[in-house]
Amino acid sequence: METLDLARLQFALTAGSHFLFVALTLGLATLVALMQTRATLTGSAVHRRMTRFWGRLYVINYAMGIVTGLVMEFQLGLVWNGLTHFAGNVFGASLAMETLTAFFVESTFLGLWIFGWDRLNRWAHLGVIWVVTLTAYASAYWIMVSNGFLQNPVGAEVVDGVLRLTDVTAVLTNPAAVVAAVHILSGALVVAGFFMAGVSAHHLRRRTGEQEFFRRSLRIGVFTTLPALMVTATFGGLQFDTAQPMKLAVYAHRTEEVARLQAGMVAAHGPGDYIPSAAPVQIGATAMMIAFAVMLLVSGLSTLLALFPWTVRRLRIWHLLLTAAIPLPFAAMLAGWLFREAGRQPWVVYGLLTTRDALGDLSPGALRFSLVAFASLFGLLIAVNTWMLARSARRGPEEAAPGTALAAEPLPVLAF
């Protein structure tokens, strides 16, 4: 395997792994903030306990995600320094804003939320979790501004071999970024909704003592999934307006159009193969569509069943189905990401910079070593995160606040 393939595989593994953490973090933050709002406005004890329980799971996932996010920053500078040299003047600012938002504002306020239970005024504490949630949204937006520019470069021009920003408004309002950001945020709610419903269904199926607690949680999770799926599908469809024509032609098996587009690329950019590999494009799109169809079926059926108290409490086969469905939205998100990113090849900045030209001067041996190291590290982090989430979820709600409860979990506290 040549250096370019090794570098692409490494980035795909690390970016995809990080994406798993991000999706659950964004969605859970929203649901936890809504639960705490209900608890604060009404004084509901059960919603306060729900905030603590689901907040504990959110913090575990967030802490582990921080570790994976740091690796992404390193790779851009060490492996893809051709990209940062050519386009850093444009998309580097949004990456910097994301870093400031996530690692300073969001993390600071999350610390206040974790350790502010019974110390801050209840309205101040509520405000803190909403700052955490909104900064998480802002962080996702800034990432999509950078990614959207790579997909659809606007607001810049090439000067002396590098890109210079010419229209900041065009970059910030790039349809490839704005539409994708809404798609990601709604998709994160799908992930969190299925996660919450699945964990709650597990407890209901096992007849644990907290029946009322998990009955409410299950209904919140289920009733979140259906509208979130509709928004996700709508904004996913809107992204086809800014999708690369070559990607769509390859996915649809339109060979004549692929040949015509290839000829146009050769005429504009010189000799080369400008056709993305069909396998990842078609596999990503097909897997995404299948996962969406299954989720829509499960969500629609679950929405109907959740209207009846008896089924929520007693229908064990439904509980088992919801628990088994937890991985579905994660798979759909990864498949959609594969379709979006693989279809852009061989361009890293579409029409301006190829992936090969963006690669730094690294030896295959160094990349093989880093690939094994990163794959092992990320595999370990995913395994530990899954184990810790499952362990904490099985333990059920406790009276301890998220910060206190995590004292028994040394690895996330260290990572945070």
Helix and strand arrangement:
Blueprint: H1 3-42, H2 45-78, H3 81-115, H4 122-151, E1 156-159, E2 162-165, H5 168-172, H6 175-205, H7 211-238, H8 245-251, H9 255-269, H10 278-305, H11 309-314, H12 316-324, H13 327-342, E3 347-349, E4 353-354, H14 355-358, H15 364-395, H16 402-405, H17 410-415
Antiparallel strand pairs: 1-2, 3-4
Description:
By secondary structure, the chain is mainly alpha-helical. It has one domain (3-244, 277-415). The chain is 79% helix and 3% strand. It has a two-stranded antiparallel sheet. The two termini are 36 Å apart.
Provide tags for this entry.
single chain; 79% helix; globular; two-stranded antiparallel sheet; disordered C terminus; mainly alpha; 416 residues
Series of H and E elements: HHHHEEHHHHHHHHHEEHHHH
Rg measurement, Å: 22 Å
Write out the strand line-up for the largest beta sheet, numbering strands in chain order.
1-2
C-alpha termini separation: 36 Å
Number of strands: 4
Instruction: Using the alpha-carbon principal axes, give the shape.
Output: globular
Quick rundown:
With 416 residues, the protein is mainly α. The chain has one domain (3-244, 277-415).
